[in-house]
Amino acid sequence: MRAGVLAGTLGGALMAVVVFRLTLAGTPESWQPLRAMAAALLGEDALAGGAFAMLVALAIHVVTSSAWGIAFAWLAGTRPRGVASVGLGVAASLVIMVIMTFGVLPTVDPILYEQAMLGLPSWIVAHVTYGFGLAIAPAIRRSTARSDEATTRALPAAVQAP
To answer: Mind listing the pLDDT tens digit for each residue in 115-154?
Structure first.
């Protein structure tokens, strides 16, 4: 689970940076994707974009990114390495994009859905970037498994579970 949370959060952070850069960074428009995301819980009032709306949007993004990261880490396991892991992460991110964009957003956040459709090329690039973050999940799982194994070996026999 730790690998999925870390990979999903990293991917989500990378995605946010890309979206920010692609939407005229430093201008009021660069915050529009966050405002639209907050609309899922706050409705159209989120488009005014106060600090609370931004925090709600960041919370939604971190939770969603982490949840998909957990699912990816579980499904990917520990075997993919290098280019295969990156390819799998990017492919998964595109599947996630399709599920979220066409299966979830039209109902849960039609405002973000509309903006995604207007900026579809940027939306795709952002999700591919998310996949680069997901790609580290198998390596984290391998590292965690080795660490847990070493800890178990180092424990005295009396302390180890039967």
So the answer is: 889 889 989 999 999 999 999 888 888 887 666 555 555 5
Centre a 10 Å sphere on the Cβ of residue 111 and count the other Cβ atoms it contains. Answer: 19
Size (the chain), residues:
162
Taking phi over 0 as left and psi of -120 to 50 as alpha, with beta for the rest, 24 belongs to: left
Residue 58: is it exposed, middle or buried by C-beta count within 10 angstroms (0-12/13-18/19+)? Answer: middle
**Is residue 9 classed exposed, middle or buried when 0-12, 13-18 and 19+ CB atoms within 10 A define those classes?**
middle
This prediction's pTM: 0.80
DSSP string over 28-44: GGGGHHHHHHHHHHHGG
